[in-house]
């Protein structure tokens, strides 16, 4: 109980960062607005930075690989998430698909809740069925990419060099995802060898669900205030 309480306190302290996880820093926003033409390396850096500091992405990614033990399975699920994330991010910015940021970020919070409940076996106990986890990973990946596209559109990236810059940004996102995934898998590898892993795994997923609800609640409140 003490471990769980301490973890919840730490998570509560991280809430301000969590709710702004999909945001773009003022410095990066100013850079995006001012540049013109093709800038491959800077956009790759911005993409990697976004993924590494995107707590919503990391939480969902953690949930996806939490009980995956074979690298083949990890590769399949992460690839599905990356595919969904890439498609809507690129197409969303290219075609100017604007979505209310509060709504899409609330759905991203829901994706964290969904995956935590899936890991807890809630759907089998409640409904007697197991949703298609691969399809869910792909679908929520589409929403995560839409959230990023919505933020980028707010800063009106210059049309000159747009496609190469977007592709570079997406490559950077995938590089950042690989870096984050490597850390997650290393930590999970050591954790799974401990005696109390399964008991602690239950608590960890409860905390993950709590954070997803916090993100959802914040975004829904923001939408209601802004309406």
Question: Main attributes?
Answer:
227 residues; mainly alpha; 11 helices; 81% helix; globular
Give a quick summary of the entry.
The chain has 227 residues and is mostly helical. The protein is built from 11 helices and no strands.
* DSSP summary, beta strand count: 0
Mean pLDDT: 85
Query: Which parts are unreliable, with pLDDT below 50 for 5 consecutive residues or more?
Result: 1-21
Overall outline: globular
Count of spatially separate domains = 1
- Percent of residues in β-strands: under 5%
State the order of secondary-structure elements, H for helix, E for strand. Answer: HHHHHHHHHHH
| Overall helicity | over 70%
Structural class assignment: mainly alpha
How many H/I helices? 11
Main pleated-sheet profile = none
Radius of gyration: 18 Å
How would you describe what is shown here?
- The structure is a single chain.
- This protein is an all-alpha fold and about 230 residues long.
- It has one domain (about 1-225).
- It contains eleven helices and no strands.
- The chain has helices at about 1-15, 15-20, 25-35, 40-55, 55-65, 70-95, 100-120, 120-125, 135-155, 160-190, 195-225.
- Helix 5 packs parallel to helix 7, helix 6 (about 70-95) runs antiparallel to helix 10 (about 160-190) and helix 7 (about 100-120) packs antiparallel against helix 9 (about 135-155).
- The longest helix is centred in the last third of the chain and has 31 residues, at about 160-190.
- The chain is globular.
- About 35% of the residues are buried.
């Amino acid at each position: 109980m003490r471990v769980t309480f301490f973890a919840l306190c730490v998570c509560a302290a991280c809430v301000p960062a969590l709710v702004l996880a999909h945001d773009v820093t003022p410095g990066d926003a100013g850079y995006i607005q001012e540049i013109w033409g093709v800038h491959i390396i800077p956009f790759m850096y911005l993409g990697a930075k976004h993924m590494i500091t995107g707590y919503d992405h990391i939480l969902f990614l953690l949930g996806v690989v939490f009980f995956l033990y074979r690298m083949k399975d990890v590769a399949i699920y992460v690839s599905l998430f990356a595919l969904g994330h890439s498609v809507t991010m690129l197409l969303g910015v290219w075609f100017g698909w604007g979505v209310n940021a509060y709504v899409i970020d609330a759905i991203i919070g829901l994706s964290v809740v969904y995956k935590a409940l899936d890991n807890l076996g809630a759907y089998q106990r409640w409904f007697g069925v197991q949703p298609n986890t691969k399809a869910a990973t792909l679908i929520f990946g589409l929403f995560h990419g839409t959230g990023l596209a919505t933020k980028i559109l707010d800063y009106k990236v210059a049309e000159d060099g747009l496609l190469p810059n977007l592709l570079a940004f997406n490559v950077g996102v995938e590089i950042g995802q690989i870096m984050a995934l490597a850390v997650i898998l290393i930590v999970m590898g050591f954790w799974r060898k401990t005696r109390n892993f399964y008991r602690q795994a239950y608590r960890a997923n409860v905390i993950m669900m709590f954070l997803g609800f916090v993100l959802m609640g914040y975004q829904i409140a923001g939408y209601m205030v802004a309406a």
